Amino acid sequence: MTTIVMTGGSSGFGAIAAQRLRRTPGVALLTGARVPAAGSLPLDLTRLGSVRAFADSVRERIGDGARIDALVLNAGVIRPDDSGRTADGVETAFAVNHLGHYLVLRLLMPCLAERARVVLTTSGTHDPATGAGLATPRHADAELLAHPDRDPDRHAAPRRAGEHAYTAAKLCNVLTARSLSAHPAMRSRRVAAIAYDPGQVFGTGLARDLALPLRIAWSVLGTPLGAPLRGLNRTLNTRAAAARVLADLALGTSAPPGGRTYAALRAGRLTLPDPSAPARRDDLADALWCTDARLAGLAA
């Protein structure tokens, strides 16, 4: 039996991927959701206490001695600004897109099987070369991302500040995949870590907190009406294509070559570009891992 644990499996392309995984013979899928449905577990990534409870529930479900074959950290959100704060006092987009997932990862790392797969959904918006139009990351300082009011270079325009919160959190996901791949315990178990950029996928729940006109456009472009745009821009993908690759990565039927920790979906095909220059820096990855641990209440 292959055991897969997943976040972000209740809407968007994550829900399509989860459906495929559930239909795959020999796969047991455990999902976490803010509003759990049948077969899922409660998980609110804005509350570190909920993350800890989720990890406890996963360990209880899989039982003593059982292992996780794939951990898929897919949930995400973009907000109209960076003013939201979680119950723990952390900026909301950073908590959902990165810090909550970091804690899920750290708590479940001891349960990862030999040759397990860890997939962190990131975004090409972390790289200025993608030309996505969003405010690109100025840094990957988890302290400042958790508390942007302390950032001396914080964007004055709320919309740009919200974009930066999102893109910088996605940069952190790429750096975390880099750190995980170099972790001695993970290397000894030959665990594969991959930061997966699905491209821009309209019609998902990612934009649920944005203004109504943007939510409407996001929804409409996720229908067949958005097909002409996808023909012009390689970074635009359908929910079905993004889901197919996410499921393939979780199942191990699609796997980047050894040493590659970043993959991007372009025109419906999985490619292996280099991530941004900051995403390739070991010093940033090491610093982020340690700061995340402190923010999450863990030892580095």
Short description:
The protein is α/β, with parallel strands linked by helices. It has helices at 12-23, 48-62, 92-108, 142-146, 158-182, 184-188, 212-220, 227-232, 239-251, 282-296, and strands at residues 2-7, 27-33, 40-42, 68-73, 112-121, 192-197, 262-266, 269-271.
Could you explain how this protein is built, in words?
Belongs to the short-chain dehydrogenases/reductases (SDR) family. Helices cover 41% and strands 15% of the residues. With 300 residues, the protein is α/β, with parallel strands linked by helices. The chain has one domain: NAD(P)-binding Rossmann-like Domain (Rossmann fold, 3-Layer(aba) Sandwich).
List the helices and strands and how they pair.
Blueprint: E1 2-7, H1 12-23, E2 27-33, E3 40-42, H2 48-62, E4 68-73, H3 92-108, E5 112-121, H4 142-146, H5 158-182, H6 184-188, E6 192-197, H7 212-220, H8 227-232, H9 239-251, E7 262-266, E8 269-271, H10 282-296
Helix pairs in contact: 1-9, 2-3, 3-5, 3-10, 5-10
Organism: Murinocardiopsis flavida
Pfam families: adh_short
Keywords: Oxidoreductase
Keywords:
alpha/beta; Rossmann fold; eight-stranded mixed beta sheet; 10 helices; 8 strands; 41% helix
Q: How many E strands?
A: 8
* CATH topology term: Rossmann fold
| Rg estimate, integer Å | 18 Å
Principal-axis shape equals globular
- Judged by helices, strands and strand pairing, the structural class is alpha/beta
| End-to-end C-alpha gap | 32 Å
Strand content: 15-25%
Low-confidence stretches: none
Number of helical regions: 10
Secondary-structure element series: EHEEHEHEHHHEHHHEEH
Tell me, what is the CATH class?
Alpha Beta
What does the average pLDDT come to?
Answer: 92
Strands ordered across the widest β-sheet: 3-2-1-4-5-6-7-8
The CATH architecture can be named as 3-Layer(aba) Sandwich
Note the main sheet.
Answer: 8 strands, mixed
Helix fraction by DSSP (H/I, runs of at least 4)? 40-55%
Going by CATH, what is the homologous superfamily? Answer: NAD(P)-binding Rossmann-like Domain
* Tally of individual domains: 1
